[in-house]
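Notes continue from the previous slide.

Worked example: a multi-chain complex. Inputs as given:
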Amino acid sequence: MDYSSLVNTSLDLNLNPNSGVNEEIPKKEVESNFFALELKSFPSRQEANGDLEEELKRVSAENKKLTDMLTEMCDNYNTLRNHFSEYMRKNSNSEKEMSPPKKRKSESSNNNGNPTGADGNNNSESSSTDEESSKKPRQEIIKAKISKLYFRTPASDTSLIVKDGYQWRKYGQKVTRDNPCPRAYFKCSFAPSCPVKKKVQRSVDDQSTVVATYEGEHNHPQPSQMEATGSGSSRGLTSSSLRPSPPKVTVDMARSKSFNESTHSLPKLDSSEVPQVLVEQMATSLTKDPNFRSALLAAISGRVSHKN
DNA sequence: CGCTTTTGACCAGCGC
DNA sequence: GCGCTGGTCAAAAGCG
């Protein structure tokens, strides 16, 4: 059942984790809306006054209750987010200590040679043991600020394209030993000014899950955002190559095995990426969750039906 | 025509 | 030193 056909369930969720909850505006909106509604319903103003006051009180009380619930929800969310960030920090530390046995040197030694220096991300992780990185003669050494994201795509989709909002240029594909599905290598279209690379490969035991491993940090906003601000004029960013709509990142971390299976490497999220990705994901999850929507619908319809 | 994708070749690290 | 493997390069093909 699609509730959206009955009620506009588009949630104007606050996606900015830093800005807190605005409790005043919705309250005023509700009150004014109801006031306007009631004025139409009662032709006689005197007759309406008593009922209006009563209704106003009831709505105010209900609104307060909803506000409290929302506040509580936001508190819970913030707590959860803090726990998540803390968890990611701990995880990245522990993973740094016990690197996989068959990692290649260039990857495990977390080298620090940002080719352009434009990125400027001086995370302390990379400063430990990279004397050997200077021996790498040939290729530019990308600062390995690695994050792993899990995307869900149809198993039939073999394109290995994940819509994360950035423009990527594929530069290689390889079948690896431990996974029959080919691994695709991408560079950010802003390269060489943007050193970010990503590897995309289907999960070996869940074909509908695509694992995207990001290395480095973007030193530019998302192309879609640049387009919105009118500053997207870089090479390789023709209007046709830009995605027409804001990226719908279908990250489903809750379903990613890493949360359930300790044998898998846990998704390491760049600490700066965590809020945005997480918040978007939570908002998406909430709006898609039928339980949440039905609860919301029930709350709204309950309020409406009280009037009748 | 310019950009992207494909794909085989090449290179470097690692284990034996 | 050799073979295996992951990662990258670069020419060719494809596409708009």
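Summary box: Residues 265 and 298 of chain A are 40 Å apart (CA to CA). Chain A has a mean pLDDT of 55.
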